[in-house]
Amino acid sequence: MIDFNNKGFFKLKQNRDYADQVAALLLDGETIIDAYKSMRDGVVFTTKRLIVVNVQGITGSKKDFTSIPYKNIVAYSVETSGTFDLDSELEIYLSAVGKVKFEFTGKTAIVEIAKYIAQHSL
C-alpha cells in the first residue's frame, strides 16, 4: 500500500517495465496510457486508474500493487515542465486517505494523464 504519510515518490522516468507486470490486473476495455519507474517503485496510468507498484524486500521479488480509480480522486494538481526545470509533478487528493505526490523527470504525458483524471473524476 502507498505510504500516504510519506506523500512523495522518487523521480519517476518513463519506463514500460511495470506495464507488463500490471497487464494481468487490467479490466476488459482498460488500456495502459503510460508507465513510469523510479529506482524500484513505479506507477502505471491506465484509462480507468493509477496502479502504483511498491517493490518490497531486499531482492525486490515481492511487490504491492495499489489501485487508485480516477473516480476516487477529489482534487488534483499538475505542474508541467518548463524551460529550465524539466521535471513535472502530479498531486492527487483522495477522500479519507490523503494526498500522494508523483514527481516525473524526462518525457512525461502529464497533460494526457490530467485529461484522463478530469474525464473520470469530474
Automatic annotation (TrEMBL):
InterPro entries: PHb, PHb_sf. It holds the Pfam family bPH_1. Transmembrane segments: none annotated. Coiled coil: none annotated. This is Bacterial Pleckstrin homology domain-containing protein. Residues 14-120 form the Bacterial Pleckstrin homology domain.
